[in-house]
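One-letter codes give the sequence; the fold follows as tokens. An example follows:
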Amino acid sequence: MFKRILLPLEPGSSDTCAISIASSLAGLVGAELVGLVVEDESRFMKISTGAMIAEALTAQPIVGSPRSPEEAMQIEEQMEKESQELISQFEACSDKADIDARFVVLRGNPTELTLSLARTVDMIVIGNSKLQGPQGVSADRLLHTTTRPVLVVPEDAGGESSLVIGYDGSAASERVIRLAANIAEAMDLGTVHLLTIDSDLERAEKVQAPGLDYLSAYDFDLVPVCLDGEAAEEIISYAKEVDASIVALGAFGTNRFIEKVFGSTTQTVLDGAPSAVLLVS
């Protein structure tokens, strides 16, 4: 199913749960796990708040002034410490899982280098801290840009042996259902919930029928669910109700303007789900 899994890590953050889950998943599917930390070269520059706002609005590169040699030395030492802490966590988990693993430390633009390496793998696992931390913009662009499936893992991820699939019959949800079924089987998850949300429940059952037929070929217990309500709220609520370990759904839509004005189901689920979230483009 997968030959190589990428695990981008956030310097200075705790991604213990993401490392553990990525190591376990790599072991279950026989994939190589590639840990990645990108030391952000912009930390060596003094950058004003105005310049950062301008970059966010215009996507133009930030222009700053170099830090003093003393400051640069302190930053160098801090980067080395952060990288070594992540390497130690990574090696401890990968050794315990007895998997083929390697760790890559790069320096440069985190967004560009992460996207470049993402093209060489089959799947990406990231900690939810990467969405909230200093490199959150990098993670946001990764989620919107990559064609690889991404598993986003909160630091306190838990749940029982079950997976919830958000399914609406679209081409995106067809890709989700195939990958989610394979992951559920590889991870020996006992129950898969196929969740369809529509104001017309009779229509929801018809939409759901092909998905149920497809999943019936697998050995896990299959639970069909049709609900009426706002998609993100219903997905989060149901995932909590069944204590799901993974929620699988289609990744962000293509219209970024609509997302900014009206919000995004994907982003809301990422913010509110207690479990890991599998996103498939």
The first strand starts at residue 4 and ends at 8.
